[in-house]
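haha ok so turns out i had the wrong file open the whole time. this is the CORRECT one, sorry everyone. sequence first:
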Amino acid sequence: MDAKHGRVGRPRSEAARAAVLYAVDDLLVEEGYAAMTLKGIAERAGVSRQTIYRWWSTKAEILFEASWTDAAEELAVPAGDTPLAEITAFLEALVRFLVRSPAGAAYRALLGEAQHDAAVAGLLASKDVLGDSAKVVIERAIGTGALPVSVDQASALLVGPVFFWMLSGRDPAALEVPRLAERFLADMRQR
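then structure:
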């Protein structure tokens, strides 16, 4: 049994896994979520459909794994000289992720699908891709002892405005990231 994924069978080939994750990103950009199929993902990745079915049940699971893996890297920002610099760097990375990244496009596609597919909603609820990255930055920049709310609530307050701005189709260039960072820190001090 594959302990990591709870499936019976041969161990997962890292080369095949990487090929599938790259293929799903490419197909999402080229075809969109609705047109993407497991057969198409397998063909693009150069693996058999059995390989895909051995490790994933749905295209949403593949897309989620691709998005989660990339998001962890893309949203990881180095420690800043000041809390403001660190929070600003995170918000800039979040905007890039949501606007330009194939992983961000995957995440947005899954959010849309989750609105009418309970299985996809459950998948997204299983790991908070954006919130987990925000928590790391908040804990490092501010510290949990200095927070007037839980770190979960703080991460929602940090991510929420950018998330709403992007998903409501507003111009990312009009988003004043440094001001959002300042407001977030002021809010954490004033509560």
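The radius of gyration is 18 Å.
again sry for the mixup
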